[in-house]
Amino acid sequence: MPNRVVLTGAGVISAIGGNAREFALGLSEGRRGIAHIQRFDPDYYPLRAGAEVKGLSQEKDGDRKTILLRTAMEEALADQALYACYHPDDRVLILGGGIEYLDIRGYSKAGEEKCLNSFLHDSFELARQVAREFDIRGGVHVNVSACVASNQSFGLAYRLLRQTKNKLLIVGGVDSMLDPLGYLGFYKLGALTTWPGEPEGSCRPFDKERCGVVLGEGAAVMLMQNALEAEEQQIMAEIAGYGSTMGIFAYPSKKVYFMGSDMISLLKYSR
User: Fold this and answer.
1) What are 27's strand-pairing partners?
2) CATH number for 153
């Protein structure tokens, strides 16, 4: 019989909360984390807003995904007693990640003798770096399937734990599109919102006056265990199932778009 899979730890950093508790409170209060971007100068764009994490102890240049992921990991793995129950070879990291980050300013200042690759930061190297820092030796997996990357990472972890014992799965996702290159890419695609009002009201996906997306950033990490191995008081929820499919949507313009669809079902755990 397949194992039951439960969540026993969480770490979050986002525009509406700097840890898991603040994030949950932000959701329940309907808090909006969108404001004018501070990290770079967006004045040459029609929109100058994003869901930016405030108060990061980081230089303006550099890949923010590194500090976002490390912060979420530290919170999720705060229970050292639980972490120590699993040998490093039995700890597995599965992450949903975004596109590469290019340090444009650093490259432009370095001169021709520097190789472009030395200024590229990818999700795979970030995951390997974090695995070394937190002594995770059981495997590192990175999913880069765009908007469903983290959800599919949870699905993979769930299926692994259903068939495996004595493993701790550290699962989550991280991304930040708030850099000049990422912002420019979405602007050139025509995807950024053209909302003329205050930044807080610019994200309105279900409104008849919706007019584009707002970019943001953040990281979330959760611990997943076999239910028989977990301490009852640490269980936050049980994962009841996971599915992934591909939907096909046709619009009046006769264009056809393919859109991935993922779903994870959580059961509230009752003692």
Assistant:
1) none
2) 3.40.47.10
Tokens describing residue 153: 């990472």
Question: What value does the mean pLDDT take over residues 85-106?
Answer: 85
- The sheet carrying 217-226 orders its strands as 140-143, 91-96, 168-176, 217-226, 5-13, 237-250, 256-268
Model pTM score: 0.86
Which parts of the chain fold into alpha helices (H)? 20-28, 64-76, 80-84, 104-110, 123-133, 149-163, 180-188
The domain in which residue 171 lies consists of 5-239
Tokens describing residue 256 = 């056809």
Question: Does pLDDT of 255 surpass 80?
Answer: no
> Residue 214 above 60 pLDDT?
yes
Question: What integer pLDDT is reported at residue 256 of this predicted model?
Answer: 44
For residue 20, give the amino acid letter.
A
Does residue 168 fall inside a structural domain?
yes
Give the count of domains, the chain: 1
| Sign of the alpha-carbon dihedral angle for 106, 107, 111, 113 | positive
Q: Of the candidates 47, 46, 51, 48, which has an alpha carbon nearest to the alpha carbon of residue 34?
A: 51
Considering the domain boundaries, does residue 191 fall inside one? yes
